[in-house]
Amino acid sequence: MRRLLPLLFLLACSAPPPVILFPTQPAAPPEVSTIVVPVSASLKPLLPQLEANIPKSLAKLDAYEMEPRGRFGLKYRVARDPITLNMVGAGLHATTTVHYALEGCARAGSKMWPCISCGFGEPMRDANIALHSHFEWDQNWRLRSKTTAQPVDFPNKCGVTILDINISDWKLAPMVNDQLRELAKTIDGNTPQLSNIRPMAQQAWKELQSPFELAPRTWLVLEPVDVALGPIHGSGLDVESTFVMRTRTRVIVGEKPVIAMKPLPPLRTAEDSTAAGIRVPFDLQLSYAEASRLLSEQFAGKKFGDLTIESLELSPSKKEGRIAIKANVAMKHYRGPVTLDGIPLFDSATSSLAITEVDYELNPKHKSPFLRLADRVSHDTLRARLRENAHWTITKEIAGIRNEIDRGMTRQLAPGATLRGHITSIQPVSVVANDAGIGIRVIAVGDATVTLTPP
Which pLDDT tens digit goes with each residue over 314-330? Predict the structure, then answer.
């Protein structure tokens, strides 16, 4: 049984394998596979740029800063906390707290009086600044952001009013708004520079289209169709997203195929970002000689009541789609050949090849001596035993194919781009009898990702 389906991809050096690619069945059509491309970008470089562009403190303490009409003057101290960036869901939140102290004095001749203050001689007052950046990928494979400021929160607002003018609104609000605008400008201006993955995506797209040799004259071919964009999310300072590449996947036997390279397409929005995995179709063939040997190992010398099956030989049947079974039997009233036929099928319940609908192959010009001489019980016994036992498990036998497909799906595509694939199951989908043997069409099913690592 362990030799039922010698693997196509592990070709023996000493002798040709009994299982070869099935040449007479129409080539397996390509299967549509999806290759997941996790993409991430770090926003850590934004922090030093923000800290450098936004003043940490502002102060006017040595003299009063007069308002344009000279009616009052102002002293102030403003200091901000470090800026905090944090991805929450699909957006980036930038926050900081500005601490401030204000003193406003009316001008009375050469004197500045009366004066009102907050934050001097007491804890400084606070203004909480928050911005939200919405991220999206553009068609040039860059991450872009659109940043909007949230209303400033004054948990302990300073209500210093001179000449019916709120000094907080007159002086503090413009300073806070300047910081908000600079924060938004820095974030939106630098985000695309942190996330340009087009060069790596271009190289990966190109290399995916290059046929990969699984075995001599056996090629794994991926034909990319398009790229879809999944939702953006993240945590901390990391932005994450997923691209899904749809490819047509197949195995080709013969000379290395010439593939017309397709250019990297613009991104599109994925309607469903859930990947369906890879599906690699290919055909195997079990020769009649090998099938006969295996069947004989199972039945030869076995005795069923008065009936002994001495040997079995499989060959093409005169009836399309069926297999001829020539059995040499021995019993009380007859010893000699018996010809039957059946239909090869894949039994999904047992994951095995089976010969079903076994019946005698009748030739009107030559009646079998077995049918003339043997009793009806022997007829039914032989047919029943073949129906019950003419099957072979193939799931285990072709499991080794996974290793070769895995090898073809796990390799470096380009500097910074690595394809990693894993076959989780081999699914036989059809069995066809023809003049050369038993053709088995299977699909290797698994998953694959392309990891892009920025330089």
Answer: 999 888 888 998 988 88
